[in-house]
Amino acid sequence: MMLAVPDQLYLIARRARRRTVPIALAGLAVGAVSGAFVAVGQPPLVALLTVAGFGASGGGLAGTFSLLPTTTQLAPDVRLPVAGLDKDSRRTLRNAVMSGRPIPSADPETAARGLHLAQLTAVYLPLALAQFLLLYVGIGGAQIPSLVAPDGSNAGLTRVVLIGLLLVAIVMTIVFTRQIRGARRYLAAANR
User: The pTM is what?
Assistant: First the structure.
């Protein structure tokens, strides 16, 4: 089992964050300018929502695609610590890491696997959460102009889609942040 050095993991995550912010801002600007061109001649509220929607969509999708190579690179590494374990052992190890309760050092191999899984989880999940939320901003942003479209035909469906996206984003954010906190607690407890 090849283990990545934790410093390298944090460096990869930091580079991904630093790269994503300007790319998402550039996508936001390009989307807003595109929305301004599309909104020419529209009533002010429709024009404002069009610019905001196109901007959110451009920024969200640009940020998502900026994080995609990093999350794709790290995803197989997250499975390495549980490779070769049976289903129950994998579940036990993942539950221990996600709940923040370290594996007793009586079993050094399992404890080492747990520590490595916690390190990978603490680096990977924040990036995965950011990618997920940026994707949802990109999808939701494209729906915003339809909220007050002059014909009003899709406003009801758009509201349902946006509320659904918002609810799923809230639930997944809670789940991801609990897992991130658990992995960080595991690391803190294991390093004492």
Answer: 0.87
